[in-house]
Amino acid sequence: MDNLDRGILDLLRQNARAGYGDIGSIVGLSASAVKRRVDRLVADKVIRGFTIQVDPSIDGMSTEAYVELFCRGTVAPDELLRILSGVPEVVDAGTVTGSADAIVHIRARDIPGLEAALEKVRLAPNVDHTRSAIVLTRLIHRSAE
Amino acid sequence: MDNLDRGILDLLRQNARAGYGDIGSIVGLSASAVKRRVDRLVADKVIRGFTIQVDPSIDGMSTEAYVELFCRGTVAPDELLRILSGVPEVVDAGTVTGSADAIVHIRARDIPGLEAALEKVRLAPNVDHTRSAIVLTRLIHRSAE
DNA sequence: GATGAAACCTAACCTTT
DNA sequence: AAAGGTTAGGTTTCATC
User: Fold this and answer.
1) Which of B13, B45, B91, B3 is nearest to A90 (CA)?
2) Does A77 touch chain B if contact means CB atoms closer than 8 Å?
3) In a 3-state reduction of DSSP, which class is residue B92?
4) Mean pLDDT computed over every residue of chain A
5) Which end of chain A has less neighbouring CB within 10 Å, N or C?
6) pTM passes above 0.85
7) Other C-beta atoms lying within 10 Å of the C-beta of residue B22
8) Contacts of strand C, CB cut-off 7 Å?
9) What sequence ranges are listed for the domain HTH asnC-type (chains A, B) (predicted)?
10) B26 inside 8 A of chain A by CB
11) What does the pLDDT look like over B7-27, one tens digit per residue?
12) In CATH, what class is B61-132?
């Protein structure tokens, strides 16, 4: 993890489709060297994935909920991650302190979409029950990066 | 904007580097047809950009909490917005159904930073109390949040 | 939806430190 | 060894039909 890696990450944050050659000509490496570093960053889980930013209003994905996940016994974070990463409606999730085991932020097209996503989340192992708080008015949204 | 577009968006959300041919074989279109649709979605600003999800521990803002906000009496969403917009650590917030008035997602550099942000939220006149769930393991973070 | 040229990705091999 | 460069081949993209 050096300044070259950070430069590559910055460029990919701005455009995840940039070619290796284009990235290399900016950070000062050959295309191959950039590819090797990107592959390593993905293997090391520094880059968790490649995704798109979608306009929520145009897409109609405006129904949101914060869902507390209560599990039986111990929960392996890796197992939760495996299940949740397969649900595209899950925008954000983490295991937390307090009585709930995890909190999951879901965004769906409408209430039926929310319910369907919730069903998929409940497939996670050892889930006892969930408690949802549906978002009425979205107040703040600051982009993560 | 039809179900084909939505299917393409879902696939790109999971892997923005998926090839047009791969996407087409899933949604039932040729590679060319998929490219035309993706190009249109980008031109129409439905897709705002292609980006990567980076391990938050890299950028040094890795301490997070979900905070339930309980206010005295009835509080208008505008009032809550006024309170929360003065706290830059607030990444995401909305009024919700349930006993809490709002849920606030805070991201800070460390625990003292988190506490300082919470203090700023609590100083607001109508805030009665807060209940925080500190994030232990970040499972999902899609930057399209 | 299909076609063909151009661009790109990828892996193997070579050079340098 | 470790990290970057070069080259060749296969695949994908992209414009055109």
Assistant:
1) B13
2) yes
3) strand
4) 93
5) N
6) no
7) 13
8) A 19-22, 31-32, 35; B 24, 29-30, 32-33
9) 1-62
10) no
11) 999 999 999 999 999 999 999
12) alpha beta
Distance in Å, alpha carbon of B58 to nearest chain A alpha carbon: 8
The CA distance from A105 to B63, in Å, is 17
Ordered DSSP codes for B45-75: TSEEEEEEEE-GGGTT--EEEEEEEEESS--
pLDDT at A60: 81
Q: Is A3 on the interface with B (CB under 8 A)?
A: no
User: What average pLDDT does range B29-48 have in this prediction?
Assistant: 97
Q: Helical H runs in chain B?
A: 3-14, 20-27, 31-43, 77-84, 111-122
Residue of A nearest to B81 (CA): A139
Domain ranges within chain B, ordered by starting residue: 1-42, 61-132
Q: Which residues does B82 contact at the CB level (< 8 Å), separation at least 6?
A: none
Of how many residues is chain B composed? 145
- Architecture label for domain B1-42: Orthogonal Bundle (1.10)
Nearest Cβ partner of A16 from B52, B64, B133?
B52
